[in-house]
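This part of the workshop introduces the protein records we will be handling. A record pairs a protein's sequence with a compact description of its fold. As an example, a complete record with its sequence and its structure tokens follows.

_____
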Amino acid sequence: MKRLLAFLLAVVLVMGSGLTAYATGADGTVSGGDYWGSVSGDEAFDNLNDKLGQRIQAGQIGQVDVCIGAALFMESPVTFTVELTDPWGQAQRGEIVLGAESASGKEAQEGRVSFGQLVEGQYTLKVTAKGFATYTQTISVQNRAYAVNLMTGFLGGVNYAQGTMHPGVLLVGDVNGDGRLDAADRAALVDAIDRGAGAAELVTDLNGDGVVDLVDLEYFAKGYNDARDTQAGVERFVPVDVIQPAQGANTKVEGDLQGLLENRGSVTLTALKPDGSTAAISKDTPVSLDFYFAEAGEANLADGIIIETGGDNPISNSVITIAYTDESGAEQIKEIPVDDGIHYLLVDSAIRAERDGQGNIRLHLGSQVAVKKVTLTITGMRNNNNLAEISKVEFVNGMEERIPDPEMDRPENLRAEAGNKIIRLTWDRSVNITGYEVLIKQGESQETVMVTGNALDITSFGGRELANYLEYRIRVQSVNGTWRSGYGDEVTAVPLPSGKPDKPDNVSAKGQYQSVAVSWKNMKDTLTYNLYYKESAAGEYQKIEGIKENSYTIRNLKDLTEYTVYVTGVNEFGESGPSLSAAATTTDANPAVMPKYNLINVGNPGEKGAHIISATMGAAMENSPLDTEPGTAWGTVDHDAASYYFANTWDIGGFNPMGAKHGLIYEFDQAYKLDTLAFHDMTSQDTGYAYAKVRYWDENGVQTDVAGISMQRKTDAGGRTYYVIKLPQAVNAKKIQFGIARATASGTISISEVYFYYYDTLMEDIMSLYQDDLHTVLRPEVTQADIDALRTRINTVDPVSGEYHPDRELLERELQTAEAILRDVKLNASVMVHSGITTKDVGRGFGGLNAWQPLGVVAAAQEEIMVYVGHSSKKTGEAANLQLVSTQYHSEAAGVSTVVATLKVGPNKISVPKIGSTTGIESGGALYVQYTGDGRDGQYAVRVSGGTQVPRLDLYQVTEESERLARAKAYVEELESFVGQMEATHREVHENSQNSQVKYAYSETDCILGASDILLDTMMISLPAKQILGGTGSGTAEQKAQKILDSMQAMEDMMYLFYQHKGLNASAPEALNQVPKGHLNIRYQRMFSGAFMYASGNHIGIEWGSAPGMVSAVPVTADSEGRYVSGSYFGWGIAHEIGHCINQGTYAIAEITNNYFAVLAQARDNNGSVRFQYDNVYKKVTSGSKGMASNVFTQLGMYWQLHLAYDRGYNYRTYADYAQQLDNLFFARVDTYARNAAKAPAPGNIALTLAGDRDQDLMRLACAAAEKNILEFFERWGMTPDQETRRYADQFPGETRAICYANDDARVYSLQGGTSSLNGTVEAVGDTVTSSVHAGRPNQVDFVLSSKGIPQADVLGYEIVRCMINGGETVKETVGFTTDSSFSDTVPFNNRVVWYEVTVIDKYLNRSAAKTLEPIKIGDDGSLDKEFWTVSTQNLTASGQTQGEGTDGSPCEPEAENPADKMIDNDTATVYTATADGDAEIVMEFNRTLTVTGLKYTAVSGIPGAAYEVQALCGGSWTQVAGGNLEASGTGRVYFSNGAQEYVSTYAATAVKLILKAVGGSQLSIGELDVLGATGDNVDFRRTDSGEVVIGRLASAYQYGDRDTDVIPEGSIVFSGSYKGNPAYNVLILYDQDGNIVGGTNAAGDLQAQQILLAEVEEEGEIKNVWNGTWLYWIEPGQQTDLAGLARVRAEMYRVNDALTNEGQRLVSDSLFENMPATLPDIELGK
């Protein structure tokens, strides 16, 4: 038996407990009640009654909760003051803040204030907020709880008629602060908009975006003169004061149980064993909560309970026990089980429990009962039995039966396919939504991505590319405006590489005692590493597999043995190639062997050293038999390494000031002249000592602190470490103190042995042969005999130790130099140091520079050299402002250079260190000096003795063309000579040497002799000599020199261009804005895996093959306005890497902002010369998406458009004058203000501040540089300005141009002298512009575009804005911009009416007036994609079936073609024809699970009216889902529904079968079969058979329900239409052409119209989805006011999640406008 059920709008919207969804906030809660801690057992009931007894007696258990929710989007937080005044005038207050960011990072959109312990009486509620009208309401309080739900505006789809249950409305627009909305507010706001700002005492920025504009007027209009009722319907529930929660037995509770009742947070429950330990939740170890109710009369009456759990882990098994007094007064106890998948038939059918879609439990009690106690016992959780989370418990009245679970439109069947650094997501399409929000988590980090379609490719996370082998967790929820469906099930995905890993980079080895420690770069796409090692001298490699970290220590090795190692990476595809080899020598347990030549404190092991009469310290001595007295340090001079000094600190006076008790103090038996001491620690390892200080006392006791000492790490023949401290000159010391410190400021210090050495005059005597500090001129009296005598001394051993001088080889080289001068042989040239290149410079917010100056010498690692420093005024021995830098040729990025020493005037003995541990290739490289002074301390010159002299070209500040050419020609000639002899030179000085670091066979790519440098003003080129020479091509030396000069000029010009755009100029008054005193350095480097070039630290690395290109560029020439004429700078890569180095750190984004310089170097003032595509730029700026573009080149367009919009010269225009440079170059101003924010303009006296957030800082800097508010531009690019950014920008006038559409071609056009004819009001959109729905794609709207009234050449393109109506208000969204005459918009929703506004944008970036096009209804039938389908038939024989033919490529007989494929080929013209034999079957297999709702057949003929049946394959079983007879036309749709064909049912199916019954012998033809998915709700007007819309006057009364009152009176004006949806969750409103609700209101403010949604419902069934229901909307005769102004009407359909509370309300469908008949026809309504 069936009956008609009509849902009135008011019933559907506001029955029950109201907008409880808006009352879930926890902030701002005010409670006047006592706080009860957690208790257990029956004492809770006694507790409750004891505490409440007097209060109940006095009637003090009333409660009022006020909840405020956001209906308007506010850009800034709004604070509402909520005041409740009792009958005696006493007020309580609370605050609710909407829009403030919470700890979770989300903005609060709702909040609650609770007032408790209220006595009975009349209370006055008052709510105020800045800019809102004062809200007041009287509430009659009894011993109950009451809820008042308020919204910051009217909600669409809610009946605000007086007397109905609806939320209250807080009206925005109280501009003058008088608490009302009236004409005075309107006048003040309009005046403020005209002036661009309001007076300080007025609230004119109603939406809080920092701008007073038409948006604020729109907000004002939302509530102004609106006659609808704004008073909230007051709801009732059980006061929390009469409920006492308590933890159950063996249950641990975390969280506030009382807060659970007050919506202030969740609690977690953990099961406890008898011994107190935790257990999994189960039937044996359940958890429970008790809720005790006081005997409080009607206050504890309830008819329902709602229990909400954590959405990720709902309850699977539980029992709810309720004790209550029924209506007859009888005591009752009921147990209601709630288990997953089980429906219990209870004895008392009035009491039942059910779940909603999120697993929450709703208990229906059937009637109002006096509850005494409720116990929730949980025995199982769905996903995690370790704990249960309860987020809400509410005891309510008015639980409504017959409302089915809401359709949440939550995405289903989320699928993730992982690839190489990519995750491809797909999910089933949801309906009634506008997009999706994808939540991505990795570890503790997460981010969200908004998309409009049901698929997403994830390629980045956290601003970086996706990492392989990391697990990502993903969920998706549907979005419709501010509504969110809640996230669906989570999926995980692990991206995996597609091939073997790259070889490991930066392998380093360090020798230790019987071990070698190996480390390397942590490589991408690598699961484990294999480490190979062997003795370097011989043997096979040993392999260590499965290393998971990027370091490993090889143990149990031989002492004092060199081992060679290399590393490979491994993943599932195999093993990478080998890394570079590294070598290290193990140490032994023996101490370092320090030189004893000229040793003062000689002696035997265990004895005090000679000539030392006192050794003291302030720490401790270990293992030292000689140190029997406290404070002595004899164990450091006893020639026994087992005894040592130990200090538990990193510094014993070597770094911080050295006091009397720091370090070690030694006193000699007399004063000795010395300048050297040495020591080793207890390990004889490299332990990182880096600092030292020395103090001495002469024979008279005079104390002197020695300045300018140096400490060098040395190794003995066994690789053991010791340290040598060198004084700048010899001193006569009777007593000496020294302290040392570690470089890392951590660890401990030990000193085992200390040696002091007699000052040796041999070095001094050899140095005195020379007349100058550079050692290029001998003294006049020097003869060969003098040199021979010194050589004899060099070759004489120390008679005590028997050792030669430790610097014997170095001293011999000095004598050879003296002999060469005597013979007039040319020495290594000296190099003049440029004081303009220095490390002493100001910071400019970027790095990547060095101050190295090439010496034209390469030196091998472990080679001893002399570096001579000359100076124009300083004396020999004085400190020089110079440091020596040694480098590794062709090194990896991590091992380029090290500062070897700080030099002094005169000779400096240097041991060139080995950088890194790489072996198998030569170690060493070019030498450089870096000046550390300020340019005011005279001229330095440097010469090196040792190493090998190599070609260098110094063009620094050389401007004379003839001089430049002469130097370049000499350089080329030197290159030609040197390169030709390089292999022979290598054999002589490397391969045949005794230095193992270079004793290798010649390799042109790795021989360190190849190093050559070219020094420019802003750049240094450090590349292989052979490749530099090769890059010059053929020709004479002069021609080659000119080619080098041209290329170097191109480099300098390019750097000049770059620095121009950074606001740097040599003529700038402040050093901060001058060109840096360091230079960039392009070096020949070994590439790390996957790199072609790189920028790292203080250099740019390129490889062998790229080097010739550095000397083959041609200077760019441009005309006086900067127009390109000829020439070409270097490739994209070099400019890209330079950009990395000079990126302004304030707003730099790697791989994006550095590319600004790359495009700057190559752009030719046309769209084709930039790296990005403007079509992609336009898609981004019209997408509405937040965040950066996924493509780095597209994102580059944002920065380039700023250049195009504000730089009025052509691309290569530069300015010698600094002021002109700033005036004309946008980023020159941006970077200048980034370096010094105080220089930025502040017309409104709001100074620029930089927040440290690169997005906010960029927006502020850009507004300052433009001197305009350009935040709209950045918002178009997906950025969100914060409040301070808006505040700073608001002081500038707004940018009126559409700069987000700027391109190169348009800028060139605008620079040619024309003027724009557009100003925002000119009508320039063509009369022929149209929009129409694509014939084959119903969600695609196609446009034909044109212009009028302006020159066609002026037109840049067309902006397309999609418009639709929500709640009577127009919502606009920019969906595209095109420079073509056509455009297509794919609409991401269904069953909606849209229209478009088209605006012409000219090449001056100005706008025309927008043209509004006719509305269009978007809708499709939900046909599913058939890409993966297969089709088969039974009892059907196709006509004309053919067999495929074999071919040479497929010689075997191929499979027969399947003619049935024609039914699923998306082409109705290809018809499948077959003869049936009995019941015919057609099976369409999807090969995946799809949600299906219907079947569509097209062009079916031959069997009209045939009976059919449709089955769906669900869970492996066929289920009948539809049946009937084919329509005679042969084309139609079948919806899967109940027998009455009214309700749409959905099935998760893998196949659908169509059965045609009793058609044997018939021939049938089918053009196409489609299976339909969900299409969402739909609303339209119905039409008569003649096509007229059903609007008219009812000729006779219509009975629509069972009750006598269910009648539409005769004479009513009736509107009728169809809908698809669920009448329990859909509501309908009609609007007129002005956005007013049709029917209006009467004098009392009541709505003068009624409406119903009709549907047939089974007596005991749930209301299901209706696919062709009927709605009626009517105005009764007594309500019909003047309808003369009603010209057009349209319908809007809304859907809610909860029919009682309107939670999740969103507009899902609307209709086109229908014209009102000129004369209303009489109409009759049938059954």
The CA atoms of residues 367 and 1459 lie 63 Å apart. The first helix runs from residue 9 to 14. Residues 1-42, 401-406, 1443-1455 have pLDDT under 50 and may be disordered. DSSP finds 21 helices and 96 strands in the chain.
